[in-house]
Write a structure and sequence with these properties.
By secondary structure, this protein is of the alpha/beta class. 32% of the residues lie in helices and 17% in strands. It has one domain: Rossmann fold (3-Layer(aba) Sandwich). The protein starts with a strand and ends in a 7-residue tail after the last helix. The protein binds fructose -6-phosphate.
């Protein structure tokens, strides 16, 4: 796990955008992106939109899979993740809208819809770069504590803490759906590379567990310690409970450079 700490959320977002740019430019024949919603990736998406507009970064060869969706929220609802990703990112770049896919939260049979969605990711050849946020409970996607490490896309029930955390996006806490469709931990772990970003002090305990804690379903994000290519990009507040920050900075300052 590579840990990068930046002074501000904007600087952290630029690092995340760099990862996207690298993977997009190195896959001109087509690239599959895994997209998170929520507030964590929004600054990085904004930076990517800027690079698209001002520097010609093109997403024309990209397809995308979202991590999750609320059960029962119509696509037209501004807090559906179908709509959120379009409003905050994909409608402002040149990706083909038909190739921005998400679990079907309106399906009459959400369990079957989850299985279908999982298959569609595998059939597309998997995800090249997955961006993740982390919840205060340690969830990635909506894999709340005690989620199976081998889980696939399925229906989950949000913890009360996550419902409370997400209530800020809705007019009232009662409006937050408690059920979601989410990629499983096993599904997320199949992405070829992962970048997780977190900002703010409220994320610090979950970040410390994820990076330095014991691997346990109590903190689902700890499974990322088992992935061969994960970069964690933090602002200082989110990094504030890490014990080894000096070492992570030292690693960044002394990166191995290959001879040209
Ligand atoms: C969203 C997702 C969640 C969020 C997490 C953090 O698609 O899968 O895991 O990344 O709940 O949410 P924010 O970024 O709003 O703090």
């Amino acid at each position: 796990m590579e840990v990068i700490v930046r002074s501000t959320a904007e600087e952290a977002a630029a690092v995340v955008a760099d990862r996207f740019e690298q993977v997009i430019r190195s896959h001109p024949e087509g690239v599959t992106l895994g997209l998170a919603t929520g507030s964590s990736p929004v600054l990085a998406y904004r930076e990517l939109i800027r690079r698209h507009r001002e520097e010609g970064l093109s997403f024309a060869a990209a397809r995308a899979f979202l991590l999750d969706e609320y059960v029962g929220l119509p696509r037209t609802h501004e807090q559906s993740y179908y709509r959120f990703i379009r409003d905050n990112f994909t409608s402002q770049i040149d990706i083909d809208d038909a190739l921005v896919l998400s679990p079907d939260g309106e399906a009459t049979d959400p369990i079957a819809a989850a299985a279908r969605y999982d298959r569609s990711i595998v059939e597309a050849g998997g995800v090249d770069l997955q961006i993740l946020g982390i919840g205060a409970t340690g969830h990635i996607g909506f894999n709340e504590p005690t989620s199976s490490f081998s889980s696939r896309t399925r229906v989950k029930t949000l913890t009360e803490q996550t419902v409370t955390d997400n209530a800020r996006f809705f007019d009232s806490p009662d409006e937050v759906p408690i059920h979601v469709l989410t990629q499983g931990l096993g599904t997320i772990m199949e992405a070829r590379s992962i970048v997780l970003t977190a900002q703010g002090e409220h994320k610090a305990p979950a970040v410390a567990q994820m990076v330095e804690g014991p691997i346990s379903a109590r903190w689902p994000a700890t499974i990322l310690q088992m992935h061969p290519s994960v970069t964690v990009v933090l602002d200082e507040a989110a990094a504030s409970q890490l014990e080894l920050t000096d070492y992570y900075r030292y690693v960044q300052d002394n990166k191995v450079r290959l001879p040209h």
